[in-house]
Amino acid sequence: MNLPAKMDVEKDTLRQMHCEFNPLSRCDGSVMYSQGATGLIGAVLGPIEVKTQNLSIDGSYLECNYRPKAGLPQVIDRIREAAIRDVLELALLSEAHPRSKMSVQIQELEDRGSIDACAVNCACLAMLIGGLPLKYSFAAVHAIINEQGEYVLDPDQSETQHQRASFTFAFDSVEGNLLLVRTKGSFKIAQFNDIECLCRAASAEIFQFYRSQVAKYHGRSEATAKNET
Amino acid sequence: MFMNSNLFEPGKSKPERSFVQLAVKQNQRLDGRRSNESRDVELTFGSDWGSVVVSMGDTQVMAQVTCEMGPPALSRPNEGKIHLNVLLGGVAFLDEAYNTHDQRSLKLNSLLERTFRSSRSIDLESLCVAAEKHVWCIRVNVNVINHDGNLYDASSIATLAALMHFRRPDVTYKDGELRIFKQNEREFMPLLFHHYPVSVTYCVYKSSGQPILDPTLLEENAADSVIVLSFNSYQELCSLTAGGTTPTNAPTVMQCARNAAARCKSLLDFVRKALALDEERRSQGDRSVDGLVGLILNTEHKLSYNKLMGIQKQRQQQPPPSENIELDNESSETPVANEEPSNEEGAGAPMDTSDWLPHDEDSQELPMRSEASPSKAGKYKTNKKTRPRKQNHSDSEEEARQFI
Description:
Number of helices of chain B: 12
Largest sheet of chain B: 7 strands, mixed
Strand content of chain A: 25-35%
CATH superfamily of chain A: GHMP Kinase, N-terminal domain
Oligomer: heterodimer
Number of helices of chain A: 4
Radius of gyration of chain A: 18 Å
CATH topology of chain B: Ribosomal Protein S5, domain 2
CATH architecture of chain A: 2-Layer Sandwich
Number of strands of chain B: 15
Helix content of chain A: 25-40%
């Protein structure tokens, strides 16, 4: 794999985020989202017709698919898909559209670290711009404990080479509850708590990014958006 | 928000179809293009080797090439393997039919297979490391991101660009031991090609005999027949897919072939130029490589066909001489270029559809009927009367031969 050279970035800030809304023509909402060098496309379509086996009178059926860039989805991609799906199911207000289906599709463009968190953020932006009814918006943050024992927030792929532990947290925007916790590696519980606080603080930045981007898309200034929320 | 999104592809309803048929009859297209004008092609290369996104208007397609070492096929022990796969559905929301054997997906896959595998464009023998034991298996995955017509062209350009962009690791096989070198040990190597094929798509309608190039989704769904031609840089035909519900006469197909050959050649030049530019950017250092994230960032370094080939809005005259350097059959370039402006002038008069096949009917007739050509040529502008007869033979042999 063609890994870029080690970049000199700060350890406690998120990478630069960019997004472009509605690049696709056939869906209700889509977004091309990038965090640093990791990029994804997310698209939503809904409410649309659902197969009888998935039909529910209580709420809409959520179809969520994550597609890697190369080849058929492997186990790791299915795990990622399940994690994204869990978060979406919590956030989606399915009672608003019973007997229908909401389809969320995520396509990986480039994976340069923190792809789980980026995929969740991409899905949230896609749902926001696609107008799906949500109870709250959500943001995910990825952090690692590197070889030296330091906490690195939103690492690039080159920085995750010899990590000791990796954490992905997803938070909601209304009460700050934890929606998703995924860990890998060995760590102490005190470290876990520290990193959780670090990620929670970083998620505020992501929510602010959502607000400013959606406000810009609808032609309103950030200040007006802040006053209205 | 529609409940039945399956039915709402543009061009599938009766009013839309009759509208498009009428428009084509009047030589008009919804986006203002002429019948032989295509959309701009944009290439964005990724940070990984062998990764590219191709955009033709709203149609977007992403291709990724990966490789791995494996045992060869039993029937061909000294050749590598290549797998091509086009995936519809996903972000493009095209799998409405939920069929395993969706027509569109099958057609796309079959077209790519024929264009790249059956025409033997990749040198598979160079992918063999140890006969009967270890060969490279190349996988090309094409993901359709958005479908706005002409997926055939977009996927073939994406596949070709990705394969040309791809680098595989260097490997040695000594005394039964296989050693694959990492990138920091030995540079990765490009794939070897026999030839480079690209495809061009035309749509034919019952209402008019004039095919249109590079259809949008509306035009493609309302079409009666679709002709897909692939040519390579030597102007050899690599694959031909023609079919549908409206019969098309042979001179029309031959004219399409001629134009397609010229367009394929210039597309290949464009891909080569774009690859060279990408190579340059990579050598400048990792910071300047945005990869596919560059799609969002909208930098000025867009590798677009119109920009790189320097084509003006008011159509080209002769292609610039620098592009003729790579020519293998130089005499074929000039008559093709001569035909291009004559096609433009023919298409410029909207109500006179017979202009579209001006002199080709003459050139394909038997020699004794050449007296008829001055009278026909009198209809058009004066500078086309003197057409040298030798242009017949400078194209590839198939086109000059009588086919009845």
